[in-house]
Amino acid sequence: MALKATIYKIQAELADMDRNLYCEQSLTIASHPSETPERMMVRFLAFMLNVTENNDFGELEFAKDICETDGPSVWQKNLTGEIEHWIELGQPDERRLLRACGKSRRVSVYAYGTSVGIWWSGIAEALKRTRNLTVWQLPAAETQALAALAGKTMKLHVSVQDGTAWVADGARSVEVNPVRLMSPEG
Q1: Which residues contact 79 (CB under 8 A, 6 or more apart)?
Q2: Cα 84–16–178 angle (5° rounding)?
Q3: What is the pLDDT along the chain (186 residues), one digit of tens a residue?
Q4: Are residues 29 and 19 in contact, defined by beta-carbon separation less than 8 angstroms?
Q5: List of residues 6+ apart from 145 with CB closer than 8 A
Q6: Which domain, by its residues, includes 97?
Q7: 1 falls within a domain
């Protein structure tokens, strides 16, 4: 018998001072049995960091990247079904990222884990020719602390200021300092 996805319910509040975005939303995340709490919480954070300017959570969607390996973790499509923003997690290979850059107007990667430096040094040169790719490193200790906030039902507040994100559940708070490794601006 196949294992079923774990369903996480999140009551999310966002206060993004960097982009002047303030909103709240109920989110449901289906986590594949092979997905760790750390990856699921990184997926949640990537979602929250990429809410569109019109404050509409509905434009972003959690994709089925573990079940459907050709897709992103999170994406935003336009009304014609074209992919506007492709969001990857972890340490994808260069072919996957180049393919994503060809399929989408914008691609973001949120790399996490203790081996990000090794991964990045191996593919950074090959990705220099991309014009729509941004790569972020999320420090391993911070994403591991974020995983400790995971529960089947969560009420989380995410604050973003000066590029730093704080995720709090009322009793605990985790500070996440994304480091930009690459962006279209250089």
Answers
A1: none
A2: 75
A3: 567 888 999 999 999 999 999 988 889 998 888 899 999 999 999 999 998 665 444 478 887 655 556 788 899 988 888 889 999 999 999 999 999 999 999 999 999 999 999 999 999 999 999 999 999 999 999 999 999 999 999 999 999 999 999 999 999 999 999 999 999 876
A4: no
A5: 174
A6: 6-182
A7: no
d(CA 117, CA 1): 39
In a domain, 103, yes or no: yes
CATH of the domain at 34: 3.10.640.10
Identify whether 34 is part of a domain.
yes
Alpha helices in 85-157 (DSSP H): 94-103, 116-123, 140-147
Q: Tell whether 116 is covered by a domain.
A: yes
Instruction: Count structural domains, the chain.
Output: 1
